[in-house]
Structure formats: structure tokens, C-alpha cells
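pinned: reference chain
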Amino acid sequence: MGITTFEELLEKQKKEASGQRLEMLGRDLSGTKKLVETVLLPTLKTLDGIILEHEIVSQSGVRIYIDAMYPPLLAAFESDGFVAHGENLTRDKFSFERMRVRTITVGGFRYVPYSNDELDKRAEACRRTVYELLGRYGSVPRSKLSKLPVYEREILRFGMTLNDSFSLAEASECLLLSQRSTSQTLHRMVEKQLLIPTGTGGIRYHGYFLSGMAISYFQ
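pinned: its C-alpha cells
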């Protein structure tokens, strides 16, 4: 069984760390703990693969640390409080924060920041971001998604990247299939209640969007 608590993850990584990273792991990580427990564990189902206080080096040689790195998605997750990064932000600190974001981006990572207020008040919206990343770039280990036919999986991943419905033409372009073949796949997914059609009904629909059942395949 994988790692399922923040405390277990932290202790394991303290044993493997040294130098400044070990020092960073010994600081107050209450914000990171909230991020992990509110967003990452509910969406990923396991903390295996999460790296706390991941170290990268900027072009100027400055070492910076990312709250929680998840290499399978190349995602750099961070949690910040308003006081720490708002009220006390000097010009030098502001410039340093911009350099951090550039360094993360140049390193090929997807920067995914959250505020503590978002984690407290909009937890589901925060988790939705991770589901969208999974839909676009990966899948949850042992996901029900793997049991679906390949074209249906790709439609669900495509749908998770959108905040709106999609058309037959867009789905056809996604699958690189003819509209006739794509239409057959979409109709099967409607019958399975994975897609909800929009439009007049019958054999022609104006568009489709994911059902709650479809979204559950990423949870």
C-alpha cells in the first residue's frame, strides 16, 4: 500500500534528505500539509511520487524549493498565505518571486500555485485543477479510466481540459477519426451516460459535455 498520510511522507523524505533541503523539511510546513491533504491526496489517491521541498537551481545559482513536486505531471504545487506573500512583500522579494516562477518554468515544470484562502474556501475548485491536469497529461494510478476503450478514454481526457461543451468536429479532430466514426463513439458514450448531449436530441446534437459519472473516472 502506498503512502497515504502527510506525516508518513514527511518522515520518509527527511530520512532521505540532507543539507539545506533537510533544513527546509524541518520548518513549519502547515501550508504544505493543507495543500497535500486538501488537494493532492484526494485527487491522486496516494502520496507516492510527491517530493516535498523539491530543490532546483536558478540560472544565477540560487537554490529554490518547491512545496510539493509531482514528477508524473511535471507539476510544481505551492501554497501561500496572503500575509507571507502579500502584506510583507518588498520590491526585492517581489523580484525574487518572479525569478522563482521563471526558474520553475525554464525547468520544464507546470507551476500550480494555491492560496491558503482557496484551500479553505474553494477546495473542490482547487481539486478540479488537478483533475484537469490528469485529464490532459496523465491518469490516476489504478484509475477506472483504463477499463474504457481507448477512444472513450481520449474523449474523457479531452473533455476534462475544457470548461465548456465540445462539438462533433472538435472530438473528431481530437481522435483523428472521421466524423462518422467519432459520432458512433460519442453516441455509445451517451448511452453509457458518460456524456450529456446538448441541442435538439435525436440523431444530431449540437455538442456534448462530461457527466458526473465521467468526471468520477478521474477521482
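why pinned: Residues 143-216 form a domain with the Arc Repressor Mutant, subunit A fold (CATH 1.10.10.10). Strands lie at 51-57, 63-70, 75-80, 110-115, 195-198, 207-210.
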